[in-house]
TrEMBL record:
HAMAP family: DNA_gyrase_inhibitor_YacG. Inhibits all the catalytic activities of DNA gyrase by preventing its interaction with DNA. Acts by binding directly to the C-terminal domain of GyrB, which probably disrupts DNA binding by the gyrase. Binds 1 zinc ion. The gene is yacG. Its cofactor is Zn(2+). This is DNA gyrase inhibitor YacG. Transmembrane segments: none annotated. Interacts with GyrB. Belongs to the DNA gyrase inhibitor YacG family.
Length: 77
């Protein structure tokens, strides 16, 4: 990292409102611009508006069917 990179503070967009925010230790809410935006984002995760994409969770019946299929594949007739 060069001296120029450390001398110029980084500006990022607040993930909630997209307002430009200075990324520094003086901002306790970074990467958010304020406590309000941080809490709004937390609330969105809590009510599952925000999700990380992935495989849907298996319920017990799906798991039983998967195990039964695996047993059949292991024991050919």
């Amino acid at each position: 990292m060069s001296t120029q990179d450390t001398a110029r503070p980084l500006n990022v967009a607040c993930p909630q409102c997209r307002k430009k925010v200075l990324w520094s230790e003086d901002n306790p809410y970074r990467p958010f611009c304020s406590k309000r935006c941080r809490l709004l984002d937390l609330g969105a995760w809590a009510d599952e508006s925000h999700r990380i994409a992935g495989e849907p969770a298996m319920d017990e019946t799906d798991l039983d069917a998967l195990l039964a299929r695996a047993d059949r594949d292991d024991n050919p007739s």
